[in-house]
Amino acid sequence: MGMSLQTFSTASEAQAALGASGVRYMGGGTLVVRAVNEGDLSFSTIVRTTDPALSAIETSDAGVRVGASVTMGMVLAHPGLSYLAPAARAVGGPAVRNMATVGGNLFAPAPYGDFTVALLALDAKVSVSGSGEMALEAFLQERDSLGASALVTSVTFAAPATDSFRFLKVSRVHPKGAAVLTIAADIREEAGSVVQARIALGCMADRAIRTHAAEAALVGRPRTKEGIAPALTAALEGIDPPTDAIASAWYRREVLPVHLGRLLLG
Amino acid sequence: MAKVPVQFTLNGSERAEFVESGSTLLAALRDKMGDTSPKGGCLQGTCGACTVMVDGELRLSCLTLAETCNDAQIRTTAGLANGEVLHPLQRAFEDAFAAQCGFCTPGMIMAAAALLERNPNPDRADVVEAISGNVCRCTGYEPIIQAVLLAARANSTSAA
Fold first, then answer.
1. A37, A111, B98, B122: which is deepest, by most CB within 10 A?
2. Alpha helices (H) along chain B
């Protein structure tokens, strides 16, 4: 079966084209063209847009908006997004980072999707053409049922407080390799105790998840070895890590508390 | 299959071909334009053997659709040498024994070229990061790292 590419100058035109059958939207190509190379026959038309609005990064006191076509390289180059640099740098090598987009990362299955883990800890919202804005956590649960014509146009979030945001990717191959697990956390403290915690996990399900149990167990306690112990236990609640070529589910479950503890105490 | 025209500058030369819609830049370069320096390795974005530069940015040609490169400036390892005179990176790879089977070498050299164009005096960590998307199963990487550092020193010496 032949493949064809359709390029549109606006996101709305691209979205309209997604309504046809056998169509897949392409951001940077690292997922879609890979699928083509692997013989995926579930689509025969690739749609993309060159809409400049989707490649824009806006930072202000009101928040941050990152277009879906913004690449990891563009995130790394933006001085106002330095807290996201570790997450962007975790995505592939330099060539992949020049191609892989923020929007595409939202659809990357485990063990990929490291950047989405960071966005989840920032409580990001996703703008979807035709469906409006939705919380990233809800988007990740519903993304497979949004309909073929749904097109992600941007993500928005509030910049974290200074030094409150932490990110860790654990992989077997250094400096680059697919994730054993990925953790992002936005921890705010007052008077020696955690007052707000958002912790997101990658490779603990088939997509990025929040660990609300660990977050609740952390609030009100000091960020000490004893203080975080309940959160490390709670982080294991509800997780269903995959077994793949990188690690077994058992291994991921065993090392999650170790790495989460290091991230929280570091 | 529908054929579509693609036109871009390849290593300084204007090139135009009809390719199958949805085909990759790697296929266009190798099968249509005769530039076999980028290699088809994993075709998954993992090995980096197909690395080229598109408008000055590193890209994986196996995951780049040829039609998205219209009017672009494409550079491959085949265009680095100046006639019989090797590019400093090519010379350094030879001198430092940084190529064994050679399959990864064109991608490695493009990744290194992108680094040296951005940062003419990299340290070891910069080199490791720059080639982190390129897999070599022969050398253990150390000769490659040393070759890139050697080329950087050669460049700085010749510029002095």
1. B98
2. 25-27, 88-95, 105-118, 124-130, 142-159
Half-sphere exposure of A42 (CA within 13 A, CB side): 8
What is the ipTM, given to two decimal places? 0.95
Ramachandran region, residue B37 (left: φ > 0; alpha: ψ -120 to 50; beta: rest) = alpha
DSSP annotation of A240: -
Record: contact A95-B1, CB cut-off 8 A: no
Q: Over the stretch A122-142, which tens digit does the pLDDT of each residue have?
A: 999 999 987 899 999 999 999
Cα torsion angle, A93, A138, A49, B16, sign: positive
Q: Could you tell me if B51 lies within 8 Å of chain A, comparing CB atoms?
A: yes
Sorted by where each starts, the structural domains of chain B and their CATH numbers stand as 3-79 (3.10.20.30), 88-159 (1.10.150.120)
Sorted by where each starts, the structural domains of chain A and their CATH numbers stand as 4-49 (no CATH), 52-157 (3.30.465.10), 165-265 (3.30.390.50)
**For residue A168, which amino acid is it?**
L
Of A2, A46, A48, the CB nearest to B1: A2
Q: Is B70 on the interface with A (CB under 8 A)?
A: no
A101 near B CB under 8 A: no
- Residue A174, pLDDT score: 83
